[in-house]
Amino acid sequence: MKFGTFKLNKLIAITLVILVMAWPAVGAAEKQAPSSKAEVQMSFAPLVKSTAPAVVNIYARKVVRQRGQTPLFDDPFFRRFFGQDFAFGQPQKRVQNSLGSGVIVRSDGLIVTNKHVIEGADQINVVLADRREFSATLVITDASTDLAVLQVDTGGKPLPMLELSDSDDLEVGDLVLAIGNPFGVGQTVTSGIVSALARTRVTSSDFNFFIQTDAAINPGNSGGALVSLGGKLVGVNSAIFSKSGGSLGIGFAIPANMVRAVLNGITRDGRLVRPWLGAAGQSINQDIATSLGLPLPSGVLISNIYKGAAAAAAGLRVGDVVMTLDGHEVNDQQALRYRIATLPVGSVVPLRVWRLKKVLELTLTLAPPPETPPRNVMTLDGQQPLSGARVANMSPGFAIEIGLDPFARGVMIVDLQRGAPAHRLGFQIGDMVRTVNGEKVASVAQLQSLASKKAASWEVTFERGGKVLNLVIRG
Fold first, then answer.
1. Which of 120, 225, 324, 368 ranks highest by number of CB atoms within 10 Å?
2. Are residues 184 and 93 in the same domain?
3. Domain hosting residue 144, numbered range
4. Active-site residue numbers?
């Protein structure tokens, strides 16, 4: 029995020795060398080499004046007694610098970046990846999208550029690269995936419809490129979600289709014109969907239509639910605004609506917001309560330009002279002047005429935030 056990143990030991000696060969078989050039070059390097030269660093400089005085005189208590213009000593100049990124989208030097990167800049310099430096001129800024367009003089030499992709082709899970200049350390490339699409609660811009990515985006990346594996621009990096100021894997980019719309909407006189639906509405919840007989809580319920605008011409009615626009589903009001904004003026697109439990197909011809009546901006003067108020006739075109309600009609205060009677009496920008001394105000010309009349007392009725207020001044 002992002899048999000895033989068995010896056999096991010999087997173990053989396995140990063979182990390197087994490991070598599992870690085989690459069998092709393609396998050796499994890297983002070729993509970076072709795209990174089109991403630039942007340095924006702004000269600000500071009062040559102690901080004590900036206290509101002291300003109340010494006046807003009081200064102790000579004002001093100080240069503020901001840093960001940009993307060359045309070989003649047209560059796209974020508006907040160059906000208020007196001088804008652009530095390429090959260290060439150019002075840039501002073509246009668009607060609605937080985009800005710059132009540099290349002396006729073409610059590297990125072609814009169709950002509607993006899907959650697609690989992307983010290229920019985070914290001013120099051009940096990070990789990640598309984490989500159509994010609508990111910033206060009008067209919230962002691409979300986990590619590391930090301060300084703003205005940089979000690039697809096909080497095209899918978005312009714009914002991050962070509690520390650094990347937490939640970054947001403006879709390339919105960038394209801004570039195509620039007119020869330097204005930005985009189409306007001419309708207002609200998103659909489950209760509204049930009451309307909708199968899903999706779409936009139309609540107001501007007479003569594109929506009215297409036959859209109050109570209709917009379901799709140009073949794209419209899940909420933000999605509808985005889809309209990415189309060029003059586009003819199909519109699918839900009306009285039936699906209808309408044809929508997109037009810019009308500017009727003409704005006729002027500053009122004289011995009357609205002296110092800058007023204008409201129209959809003018209201959208200054970021106000396009359905507002009448005469609005659009600016105030500090210290003027209108400012001291508490009028505010956005107030709609409705009557002066009992007479209705229909236009700036009429308001000017009424304000120029001599009166022993004044009564001005105006609307603010949906509330009607009265100001009475007795002689």
1. 225
2. yes
3. 46-69+84-273
4. 116, 146, 222
